[in-house]
Amino acid sequence: MDFGSIDPSSTGNKMATITTNQYFTCGGNRTWNASYTPASLTLTGPVGGSIAYTIGYTASSSCRGTTETLLTNTSTIQQTDYQDAPAGNYTNSSVVTFTITGDGGAIYPILAVASDVKATIINTCGSTASGTMSFNIDPSGSGALTPTTTDSGNTSPSIKCTKNSTHAVSCSALHGNLSIGNDGATDPIAYTVTTCGSSNSITGSGFSTATSIPVGLTIAQAAYQDAQAGAHTDTITVTITY
């Protein structure tokens, strides 16, 4: 069975498509029951990647003297089990053994080889959440200022991406200065963006946890020492490439 390509940013449980079913024949007026081992099923993939799943099957029915179909279209991966899985190909980590028993004892053992169950987690990111950076400037001070979104009271922008995936981050300023009215011209205070993510990259934490993207500035003393009093603003756009 194949769960296909799974977008970890999506919602809801994922159902598998049966690629090869399992069949057996039993006769007589009796009831058959199916069970499998191991009890807990896991797909394994890249280092640190595993996804629990359940297998859909007919647990019990009556022998009709014809071919019985074992697997059903209800094999499931829960959202909580795939949303934090690293990108890559996954296959079942152990052989799944079905045993069919009836009133008269064992009827038929069925084996599923390791490649019979598979899924692929894709590499993706969701939309970003905006951050804020607010700070005071004392023009009588000395030395460069280095405010960041990680300072107390500020908020770093964030994004959710496939776990363990690495993505390039870039930060571009609307004006490159803090100005009254955010017009880029009224009493501008020049700055440079000196921090953008972790060395201009981020590593995804999965879709249950957002990854913060710290942004930091450097403002030279010469840029602020003659500034007017009042609010000065600018907008920085964070771009993630994936």
Give the spatial strand order of the biggest sheet: 1-13-10-5-6
**Rounded Rg:** 29 Å
Which outline best applies?
A: rod-shaped
- Total number of distinct structural domains: 2
- Extended strand count: 22
Oligomer kind: single chain
Order of helices and strands: EEEEEEEEEHEEEEEEEEEEEEHE
Q: Helix- and strand-based class?
A: mainly beta
Distance between the termini: 29 Å
Strand content: 35-45%
Topology:
Blueprint: E1 2-6, E2 14-15, E3 23-25, E4 31-37, E5 41-44, E6 50-53, E7 60-62, E8 67-69, E9 76-77, H1 79-82, E10 88-92, E11 96-102, E12 105-112, E13 118-121, E14 158-159, E15 166-173, E16 177-178, E17 189-190, E18 192-196, E19 201-203, E20 211-212, E21 215-218, H2 221-224, E22 236-241
Parallel strand pairs: 1-13
Antiparallel strand pairs: 2-9, 3-8, 4-7, 4-11, 5-6, 5-10, 10-13, 11-12, 14-20, 15-19, 15-22, 16-17, 18-21
Question: Can you walk me through this structure?
Answer:
The protein folds into 2 domains: 2-121, no CATH class; 158-241, no CATH class. With 242 residues, the chain is mostly beta strands. The chain is rod-shaped, with a radius of gyration of 29 Å. The strands form 8 sheets. A 5-stranded mixed beta sheet has the order 1-13-10-5-6, with no helix packed on it. A 4-stranded antiparallel beta sheet has the order 7-4-11-12, with no helix packed on it. The protein has a 3-stranded antiparallel beta sheet with strand order 19-15-22, with no helix packed on it. The longest helix is centred in the first third of the chain and has 4 residues, at 79-82. The chain has helices spanning 79-82, 221-224, and strands at residues 2-6, 14-15, 23-25, 31-37, 41-44, 50-53, 60-62, 67-69, 76-77, 88-92, 96-102, 105-112, 118-121, 158-159, 166-173, 177-178, 189-190, 192-196, 201-203, 211-212, 215-218, 236-241. The two termini are 29 Å apart. The model has no long low-confidence stretch (mean pLDDT 92). The chain is built from 2 helices and 22 strands. Helix content is 3%, strand content 38%. A hairpin with a 2-residue loop joins strand 11 and strand 12.
